[in-house]
From TrEMBL:
This is GPR1/FUN34/YaaH-class plasma membrane protein. It comes from Fonsecaea multimorphosa CBS 102226. Pfam families: Gpr1_Fun34_YaaH (PF01184). Belongs to the acetate uptake transporter (AceTr) (TC 2.A.96) family. It comes from the Eukaryota.
Amino acid sequence: MAPSQKADTTEISTADPSLYRNDTNASIAIPKDVFEKLYLTPQLPAKGQLRATFGNPTPLGLVGFIMTSSPFACILMGWRGASDIAALIGVLYFFGGTIQIIACILEFFLANTFPCVVFGTFGAFWLSLGITEQYVIPQAADPTNFYASFAYVLAFFGVLMLMFLVCALRTNVIFVTLFALIIIIAELLAAAYWSLADGAVSRAENLLKGAGAVTFILSAFAFYLLFTILLEAVDFPLTLPVGDLSTRFKGKRGRKAEKERRDLGV
């Protein structure tokens, strides 16, 4: 029986091609850091899906911004004799401040850092403007000194908006346009306050009207963005373009992944 079994084994081994040893040169050299990323620390699917559980707070923040900036623009331009920003104190507190702070907190829990910072910044700005109009300006002993001092707040607010604009280059054209317009508005308002401090009332009025006109254009873009998001929220069969820039400016993670693919020869 032993010789027979040996013969059968030999016959099977020669008949089955899969038992032959095959040499191959199709090897790929993988860098150590890439190997560790692929095999030692594999990515696991995220368990939390907060975006699918809760609503999108961005439209709420936009509503607060629009309902504050739109009448603010009309007052700056003096339409139909409007000139008293104190009439907007309630709007500044609730639409401008409260709603946008709430949107900021909700964006925080959704891990949306950039919208969280943006809404929090604007909420604080409108609240501070409301408090300034209600309590600070009426009690200012020297209005000239107040104008010269408050102008710095607006000037540095424009610098902050420049940072936001750079970050918005990874979002869409509408956001970039909004921040660009806000920079212009902030600097025009700062120039107007410095003009008031210098006693150049006529020049200050022209600067305020210019800031109001730009703010009105800003509100139009914000209305468009809000309408776009709301249409998407109700699954409306119409999608308005916003000019997506996420594929035009690749992020750090995207560039790193592309480099790893090149290293792997993919």
